[in-house]
Design a protein that fits this description.
33% helix, alpha+beta, 4-stranded antiparallel beta sheet, globular, single chain, Cyclic Phosphodiesterase, Chain: A, 4 helices, 180 residues
């Protein structure tokens, strides 16, 4: 069994800016775990699947993307979960929520991916410090980041399939939304 997840990844220019934020956490707050994956908004949390099903899942994601239009995501400021995760916050976005919901239904019902049971809640975010952030480092970092601005927008025109390889996540498939 291999480990996978499905996400929206910002374009290279914005991903580089977000990666620089992640590197600040690594250098200044000893939190480097978020650097093991590209900047992303998770649409399907990590799940295990046999490698032999990759092609089937890729075909399913192609069909899903072909049925959905691209949309814009606005990133605005920072937020946190508990005291060990800090993230970049996307603005409220009904199309993102619908894409998430439609994808869960598509994977669990239309394509019989029973191993991909749906998750009841969705809080879109782009993690910049992840679970290896100590309580003390969190307090220090949050005093800075709760007031720091982050404002970028991008077209969510692809969804991506990522696979855990050699201690990090790598994109193994990209699936384009309809342009119109």
């Amino acid at each position: 069994m291999q480990l996978y997840f499905i996400a929206i990844i910002p374009p290279t220019d914005i991903s580089e800016i977000i990666t620089a934020v992640k590197q600040r956490f690594s250098i200044n707050h000893q939190s480097s775990r978020s650097l093991k994956s590209p900047p992303h908004i998770t649409l399907r949390p990590p799940f295990k699947m046999f490698k032999e099903r990759e092609e089937e899942l890729s075909n399913s994601l192609t069909a899903f993307a072909n049925e959905h239009k691209f949309f814009t995501i606005d990133l605005n400021g920072y937020g946190h979960f508990r005291k060990d995760v800090i993230y970049i916050n996307p603005s409220e976005n009904d199309l993102l929520k619908k894409t998430y919901s439609d994808l869960q239904q598509h994977l669990t019902h239309k394509n019989n991916f029973s191993i991909l049971s749906s998750f009841p809640s969705f809080k879109p975010h782009i993690t910049v410090a992840y679970r290896d952030l100590s309580a003390k480092a969190f307090d220090e970092a949050w005093r800075v980041f709760e007031h720091e601005s982050f404002s970028h927008s991008f077209a969510a025109d692809y969804i991506y399939l990522l696979k855990h390889l050699k201690q990090k996540w790598e994109v193994i498939g990209e699936f384009a939304f309809k342009a119109i």
